[in-house]
Amino acid sequence: MLLTKQILNIKSIFLNTLNFSIRKIAILIFNHPKNPGMPIMPTDLVQRSIFTLNSSLPIFKVNIPPVPSPKKFLQALFGNLPKVVPIKKHFYVHKTEGFYNFYIQNYQNIFFLPDWVSRWIQVNWKLTTDTSSLEVIRDSIFFGLLGFSLLLQFRLKLYWFLTINPYTRPWIYLISLTDWVYDFMSGFTPTSFGIDMSPMIVLGLIGKLMDSLNTLVFTMPYLPSEGVPGKIMINNEPVHVLVFRNLPALWCLYPIPNSLRTFWYSKRPDILNFMKHMYHEFNINFLPDKILNK
Question: Which runs of E-coded beta strand occur in 56-137?
C-alpha cells in the first residue's frame, strides 16, 4: 500500500513538472494565451474579401490525359496526344477604354507571371500585344515535360520485366536520361516500407507543373496586377472575370515599342488619334521614331 502511494506521488510530481514546463515554454516562446494560433479566416477586411472571392471561383479543369476522341487510326491505338488548352483572352474595343482591352474568366488555379518578370520581358523583348513567342515557349516546355514524364513512366514499367536487364543496351540509354533526377531527389524523399517514393513524387511535381502551364496567362501589354476582378453576364449567367483595360502602366513608365507606334502611324491612324486625344496629358510619345527625329 505504501509503495502504491509512492508511485502515485511520483506520477503526480512528474505530471505537474511536465505541465509546468509546457506552460512555461508556451508562454515564453509562443506567447500563450494571447496567441490564437493559425487563423482560419483572415482578420483584415481586404484580405478577407480576397479570400472569400478566391474560394468562390471555379477551377479550370485540365484534361491530362485528354478525353478519348479518336479521329485517326493511330489515335485509336495510342490515344489522343495531350495539348495545351490555355485560358482564352477575349479582346474588345471601347470608345473610352481603347483598343487593347481584354478580359479572362477568373479561376482559383489561374497563374500569372510575377510583375517584375512581365515588366522585364516587355521592356527588354519589346513585346506588346503579340504573345505568340511566349506561347511557343510555354508549349515547348509543356511537351518537353510530357516527353520526360513518359520516359520516367517507361523506366518504372521496365523493372516489371525481370527478364530484361536495364543496364544493357539499349535500355542503358533510358536509364542515363532519367538517372539524374532520381539521384537528385533521393536525398530529399523518404522510403516507405522499403519502397522509394521519389518516382511518384517526381511524376506528381511534373504533373502539377504541366497543369500550371495550362492555366498560365500572359497579360501583355498589361502587368498581371492591373487586372480588375468583376462579373459579366455570359449566356444569361454571371461569370467572374479579370478585366484589363485603359492605358497600360508600362506605356506611362517606358517608351512604347517603336514597332507598335509605326504600326499605328502607317496602318491604324484611328488608334493613334485615340491615344493622342485621350492621353495627351501624360506626355507620351505616340509617334514613331522616324517622325520624332525629323
Answer: 90-94, 98-105, 111-112
The pLDDT mean for the chain works out to 81
For residues 153-163, one letter each, b for 16 or more C-beta atoms within 10 angstroms of the residue's C-beta and e for the rest, the string is: eebeeeeeeee
Q: Say what the pTM is.
A: 0.72
Cell, residue 59: 477551377
Q: Is residue 66 part of a domain?
A: no
Q: What gap in Å lies between CA 109 and CA 99, rounded to an integer?
A: 28
> What is the model's pLDDT at position 75?
67
pLDDT tens digits for 87-116? 889 898 888 888 899 999 888 888 899 999
* 3-class SS of residue 3: helix
Q: Is residue 249 part of a domain?
A: no
Position 68 pLDDT exceeds 70: no
pLDDT of 4 above 80 = no
What letters, b where the CB count within 10 A reaches 16 and e where it falls short, cover 177-193? ebeebbeebeeeeeeee
- Asked if residue 170 has a cis previous peptide bond (ω within 30° of 0), the answer is yes
Q: Are residues 81 and 165 in the same domain?
A: yes
Q: 216, 185, 201: which is closest to 62 by C-alpha?
A: 216
Per-residue cell: 260: 507598335
Residues 204 and 265 in one domain: no
The reply to whether 83 and 205 lie within a common domain is yes
> Which domain does 261 fall in, by range?
255-292
